[in-house]
Design a protein that fits this description.
Length: about 475
């Protein structure tokens, strides 16, 4: 990553002068009030869907399409044949910075901050897929830069634009279920391998893939198909597991409804993986097959809330108010708000809020709608950001007030999971012995949000950030 021009430009854009909009500098396209000019990073897979959704707004033009892996980019290239094509985001920065108003980042989790921050410092609006970043320090930095530069930002958790969370908030604010004391969230993820052995031995690197660029800030290792194209989500060096994948969708509901901030406590329990009779595996580089996370989070109007997360097939307790045979949430997961006077249940993306028991809904005098709805709901999430960029209005999941605090909550859960996984050999024991490990991290993790520090298990502070490969350090 050590390129003189790139580093020089990054330093300049965060120093004395401000980057003026490209239409002022180059006179090469119409003002942002009419069209938003975007540079896209990660344009295959989920990125291709986001590009399609942005294109469907009819208000954008893609200046560049950038991806380190050319195997899944055909749809994006076909949709925007005139966009310049790149593998290295630094080339886009060097050559096209003043031709764009905004960026879209849909790369693997570990490169979100690395790619987005230089452009954000140059005052480019930013749409970044969930989770916002790979670790808490990156989240704080992205939030800080977004606030300092006054840019319009949006995380790709489309439920934040749905009417469901607004409806649930109106009901709870009206006291329909009393004070909320507990919220249960769950998902059917992971739907990729987790709790598996780190691959060994190299494989030929596909000609379409720049493996060095794909690794980015992560340590160099041999290419292995165990990481790509989608399985990276289950490896801590690249992904953030089931919680990182779906937490920003599902936990968005209580965060938006209750106005939650940073957790004060986090604890976890996870599935143990066995590799033989009475032989426990040590697969700590892989996220666990399933986990339960319990967070304590302060809600401004509700006091301390117990926010619980379940994944990998583990479910929360079934409320007694749920009718026999009635489904809890939907196939991908859901949310249950437990109040002193009742229960609200939603599906994933805050969809279909309803009271339990179900027959109450037919005679329920619903509070009036007081919160503005987003045009198109979840499907309008991209348009919500585009309109914000063009008109200067805050988007549904802006980094500063929504996406940053939500992602920090999600990553605090992951920090507790890592602490639960962490193990050391007992004196006189070796791998393969019965009961060989100590587990110093299996405790309630205390979080000092103001100082971004775990106060009762110092080892966990190593996971608040990460080790960056030389030349890829964040500035």
């Amino acid at each position: 990553m050590e390129r003189r021009k790139f580093i020089k430009n990054v330093a300049a854009s965060s120093a004395a002068f401000s980057i003026v909009p490209s239409f002022v500098l180059g006179k090469n396209h119409v003002p942002p009030s009419d069209t938003l000019y975007i540079g896209a990073f990660g344009v295959g897979g989920r990125g291709s869907s986001v590009i399609k959704e942005l294109t469907d707004t009819g208000k954008v033009k893609f200046v560049t399409l950038c991806d380190v892996d050319q195997r899944g980019v055909a749809d994006s290239y076909k949709l925007h044949p005139k966009a310049k094509r790149y593998k290295d985001f630094r080339d886009v920065y060097d050559k096209h910075l003043n031709e764009m108003d905004a960026i879209m980042v849909a790369t693997p989790d570990h490169t979100h901050a690395t790619i987005a921050l230089p452009f954000m410092r140059a005052k480019k609006h930013a749409y970044v897929e969930k989770p916002l970043a790979h670790n808490i320090q990156e989240v704080r930095l992205m939030t800080k830069v977004a606030k300092e530069n006054g840019i319009i930002t949006q995380m790709g958790n489309q439920g934040a634009s749905s009417p469901g969370s607004r409806t649930a908030k109106e009901w709870i604010d009206a006291g329909v279920i009393g004070d909320v004391t507990k919220v249960d969230c769950w998902t059917n993820r992971p739907v990729w391998p987790q709790g598996v052995k780190t691959p060994v031995g190299g494989h030929p690197i596909p000609k379409e893939l720049d493996w060095d660029l794909w690794l980015g800030p992560a340590a160099m290792r041999d290419y292995n198909p165990a990481y790509l194209p989608f399985k990276w989500r289950g490896w801590w060096d690249f992904g953030t597991g089931a919680l990182g994948d779906m937490g920003c969708h599902i936990m968005e509901t209580p965060y938006s409804v209750l106005g939650l901030g940073s957790p004060t406590e986090a604890e976890a329990s996870c599935t143990t993986t066995w590799v033989g009779d009475f032989v426990e595996a040590d697969y700590s580089s892989s996220c666990p097959p399933s986990s339960v996370v319990r967070l304590k989070v302060d809600a401004p109007n509700q006091g301390s809330i117990d926010l619980n997360w379940y994944d990998g097939g583990i479910m929360p307790d079934i409320p007694s108010e749920l009718a026999d045979g009635e489904k809890l949430g939907n196939g991908d997961g859901g949310v249950v708000f437990h109040g002193t006077k009742g229960i609200i249940l939603t599906d994933v993306y805050s969809a279909n809020p309803r009271l339990l028991p179900a027959d109450v809904n037919s005679m329920f005098n619903k509070p009036k709608e007081t919160l503005p709805r987003i045009k198109g709901g979840s499907a309008g999430h991209q348009n919500n950001w585009v309109e914000g960029c063009l008109n200067g209005t805050t988007a549904s999941s802006d980094f500063v007030t929504k996406a940053g605090p939500l992602t920090e909550g999600v990553l605090m859960g992951n920090l507790a999971i890592k602490a639960y996984q962490y193990k050391t050999l007992k004196a006189g024991k070796k791998v393969g012995d019965w009961d060989p490990y100590n587990y110093p991290g299996r405790r309630t993790i205390k979080w000092d949000a103001a100082n971004m520090k775990v106060t009762n298990f110092d080892m966990a502070n190593e996971w608040v950030s990460r080790d960056y490969r030389k030349g890829w350090e964040l500035k």
